[in-house]
Structures are given as C-alpha cells and as structure tokens.
Amino acid sequence: MLRLLLKNRLIILFLGFTRDDPKIRAGKIIGTLVGIIFFSLILFYSIKLISLIYNRLDLELADLIINIFLDYTFAMIFIFIIFTGIATSFYILYLSKDLELLLSLPIRYRTVFTYKFIEILISNSYLFFITIFPFLIAYGLSSKIPLAYYPIMIMVFISILSIPTGIGVLIGMIAVRYINPGKAKEMLAVIGGLFGITIFISSQLLPRFIESNIPELKSMGIENIKQYILATFDKPFLKFLPSTWGSNSLFNFHNGNYGSFSLNFILIVSTSALLVFLCIALSQKLYYSGWSTSSQIISRKIIIKERPEEQIITDGKRFTAPIFNRINYILVKDFKILFRTPARLMQIFMPLIMLGFILFFSILRETNSSENIDFFIAINTIFFLFFPLIIAGMVNLSVSGNNIGGEELNFWIIKVSPILTKKLLQIKIIFSSMISMLCGILIIIIFYFLFKPGPSYLVLGLLLLILFSWGESIISTSIGTFFPLFKPSQSNKSNISFLGNLLIVIFFFIYLLIFSGIVFGGLFLGTYFSLSDLVSFPAILLLELIVDLILYNLLTNVSAYRLNKLEWKY
User: Fold this and answer.
1) In sequence order, what are the residues at sequence separation of 6 or more whose Cβ sits closer than 8 angstroms to the Cβ of residue 558?
2) Buried (b) or exposed (e) across 366-378, using 16+ Cβ within 10 A?
3) Which of these, 140, 258, 306, 555, could form a disulfide with 478 (CB 3.0-4.6 Å)?
4) CA 260/CA 265 separation, integer angstroms
5) CA distance 552 to 481
6) 215-274: pLDDT as tens digits
7) d(Cα 235, Cα 244) in Å, to the nearest integer?
8) What pLDDT, on a 0 to 100 scale, did the predictor assign at position 265?
9) For residue 105, what is the DSSP state?
C-alpha cells in the first residue's frame, strides 16, 4: 500500500507538469529549470574550487580545510533540519488537507505515517539537495576515487537528513498531545527564522574575521597555519553531533582510511535506521491519538470563534460605525491577522533585519571610505535617500504580492459582498503601503541621525518613501491578481505562483530604476542649473506622483477587470 501511495504521488507530480493550469504549469517548469541551473552551477564551480585548493595548497592543509568545511556544513544541516523538521512535522502530520481522506481509508496508521515521514524528509531536504549535494559530487569528481564513493555518499547524505528529521518528528508527536499544532508551528517558525538570522550574521562576520587575519596568516608557516585553523574551527561540540560521523565517513573514504571510514559509516547509517524504525514503531501509539487530539482542539477553537463574528454581523451599530465600516473593517482585519501570525511577521521583517545588519557592516564602511569622491551629491545623501526605498521595497515584495491570494477561500465571500473589487484593491494597496512605509521610516530615522543630511532632505526622503511604497504596492498587488493561489499546496507557503513571484521581483527592479532615475535626473539638473531645493524637490515629487497616478489608474482598472472575471473552481 505504501508503494501505491508513493506511486500516486509521483503521478500527481508528473501531471502537474503536463495537465495542470497553464500558469501553474509554467511556474513549475520555470522553477524546475532554475533549480537545475543552480545545481549545475554549484557542481561546476565546486569542482573548480576543490581542484584549486588541492593544487595550490599543501596536501595536509587542503585536507584540513575540506574536513572542517564538511564538519560545519553537515552540522549546519543537522541543526537547521531539527528546527524546521519540528515545524514541518506539525504541518504535514497533523494539518495537511489529505489526512482525513488517508486516515479514513482501509490503510494501517503505520503506513500513513511512513508515507508522511517520507514527505517530511523530502520537504526538509530539497534545498540541501540543490546546494550541498553538488559539492559532495564534486568532491568525488575532482579526485581519482572509486565509484563506490557515490552510493556511499548518497547513503550518508540521506542518513544526515533523516536523523534530524526523525528527532523533529518524535518531538512533534510528543508535543502535539499538549500543544495546538497550529500555534506550535508558528512558534517554531519564528525560532527557525531567528536561527536563520543567526546563520546570516555569522556568514557576514566570518569573512571579515578571516580578512582581518589574512596579514597574520601570510607570515605563518604551513604548520602554524594548520595549528591556527585547528584552534579556531575545531570545536568540541562538533564531536557530539551525529553529523560528524557523516563528514568523517566521506573524508576518510576519500583519503583511503577505510578502517575509520567503516566505523563512522556504520555509526551514521545504523543511527539513522534505528531512529526511523523508532519513529515508525511509536507512531502506532502516538500518531493517531495526537491527530485526534489536535483535530478536537481545532474544532473547539472554530466553534468559539464563531460567536464574536456573529455578534459583529448582527450588531448593526458596531458594524456601521465609521471605524468598522466595510472599507476600514477589511484593513483592520488584515492588520490583526498580520500581528497574530508570528511566522508571517518573521517572513515580512526578515529583509529589514538582514539588510539592517548589512548596513552597519558594509555600507557605513563604504561611505566612510568614499567621502572624498567628487560627485554632484554627497554619497551619504544618496544612501539616505535610496537605501530606505530598497528595504521598504523588499518588505513590500512579501506583502503586496500575497494581498489577493492571502484571503484564500474567503476571497469568494468578499467577491459577492457589496464591496467593489476596485475598492478591495485600494484597501490592499493601502495596507501593503503602510507596512512598507513603517519599515522605511524606521531606516530613515536611523540614517538621519547617522548622516545628518538636513531637514530638507529628510522631508524629501519621507515623501519619496510614501510615493515609492504606493507605486510598488500598486504594481505588486496588480501582478498578484493575475497569479493568485487561493489554495496553496502543502510545500508552498506563498499565496502567489512562482511565475508571479518572479514577475514581481523583475518589475520591482524596473520600477526602482525608473524611480531612482527620476530622482537622480532631478537632483543633477537642479545642481547643474543651480536651482534651489524649493524648485528641484517639488519637481521631482511631482514627476513621481504623475508616474504613480498613471500606474494606479491603469493597473487598478485592469486588475479589477481580472478579479471580476475570476470564477470559483475549487
């Protein structure tokens, strides 16, 4: 029966590329091609890099670098999947939409669990398959190594993925007996986001740490460099992670140390098999009871939440009050949903945190080293005007594109309500503009105290931010009306198709170029003709406003027509 379930899954996957909706099919094909291109590029450059390391460096030093890289890479995979594995297990084991059908069929619960475990493993591993697996292939191709390396490498790679997945599934099955899986999934998504930020910060600090020590390393001998690398990167905590067995297996097999390889290979594979077997054995007792408990919790919450909604509808005074009219009610509802969804907040504000960190470690250093550049406007002023726009735009990408699809099936209720689709678009544009403006204003305030460009540039920056956020929201929301996903798949956390996301990114850069071109052109002409700020600044703002008004009138009408033509097909 498990084989039949997996076969049907593959058939559904294949049909998605051949018989699905043309737009969804195009998105899947483009996404697959992009993944293949990334895989090929990583494989090609990994072969070049590994060959360069072994050709240019001492053999022992090259082995040490590769060994430490494998240790840290596998440790990162192990820790990352433990966090994401718990959140993914909550969703796939207890919240996926096909569970009721599967558990009602004459299939053993253990078979359903095994099928879902494989789904979790694939969901956790596809990113690392594209990014890490090519490097492991290159590690074999760049050396004269027996062909047995490749099946061994596949087994080790699967084992490294399945151990943290199994740990995450076990924790999830135990925790779901006491915690609502929906809330737990959101909490763990936030933790995973914070972990991702930590990895990003480490990736920014590590190159600077290495760069600051390059002069010292150049004066060292080979032995001293090896001792320095060991003292810096050979940390004791790595020895306690099962992922180290996997890196030691591949490294020792690559170097011909078959005795040490056999020990580490047996440890990693047997631990993986034992943990998977333990999950399957305990699933008979934990899985169905946990699913029943979580279903009852969700049902009770739905019943409880129905009462206040009925009161709002029946209480005419409350619904018709100015702040709760048909327009403002949707806007207030969107803000409430946003601030009650930690995972959504993390997804939106992640660019703000990451780009803010880049600011303090990259941009400030570049501006300090570029103070003497002869330009018609100060470099600091350029960063003051444009960096907040970039951050606001990055935040807007994850908000406005999901404006329509984010309503999910509730959209069809709104569609038959007295609210016009054009009015709905206006509300959604205002919502995403306000979110991006809040983030941009925060950056503007920080920049103002750092660079002190003057009150006139502060006013210009704020007004440009408002116009840019509005224009970007118009474009992205309009694209979202053509590629909405009202019922996203289990693996897709976005309410817009891949092709829609790609178009949003492309048009974001096009709009940014047009917007910045108008600003640069206005400032240059103002400097060239010695015009005062009271003349050049209003002219720039007027041109930007005209562009936004053209976009607004054109795109909202086209998008409203598109929404009116949408029909129920679920």
Assistant:
1) 478
2) ebeeeeeeeeebb
3) 555
4) 8
5) 14
6) 455 555 556 666 666 666 666 667 778 888 999 999 899 888 889 999 999 999 999 999
7) 12
8) 93
9) S
- The answer to whether the beta carbons of residues 173 and 182 sit under 8 Å apart is no
Dist. CA 426–CA 331, nearest whole Å: 10
Count of positions (residues) in the chain: 570
Give φ, ψ of 492 to 5 degrees.
Answer: -105, 115
CB 485 within 8 A of CB 495: yes
496, β-bridge pairs: 484
For residues 520, 522, 527 and 531, what is the CA-based torsion angle, rounded to 10 degrees?
Answer: -160
In angstroms, the CA 208 to CA 196 distance is 19
Distance CA 78, CA 243 (A): 6
3-state secondary structure of 172: helix
Decide: 414 and 451 in contact? Cβ < 8 Å.
no
Please tell me the distance from the alpha carbon of residue 312 to that of residue 308, in angstroms, as a whole number: 6
Q: Who's near 490: CB < 8 A, 6+ residues apart?
A: 91, 92, 96, 97, 119, 123
> Contact at 8 Å (CB) between 143 and 51?
no
- Whole-number Å distance between alpha carbons of 406 and 496: 8
- Tokens, residue 275: 């943990």
Of 530, 396, 382, 533, which Cα lies nearest the Cα of 466?
396
Nearest partner of 473 among 548, 383, 564, 411, judged by Cα: 548
Helix axes 421-451, 342-358, angle to 10 degrees: 30
Query: Which residue from 38, 110, 530 is spatially nearest to 288, judged by alpha carbons?
Result: 110
Tokens found for residue 37:
């291109």
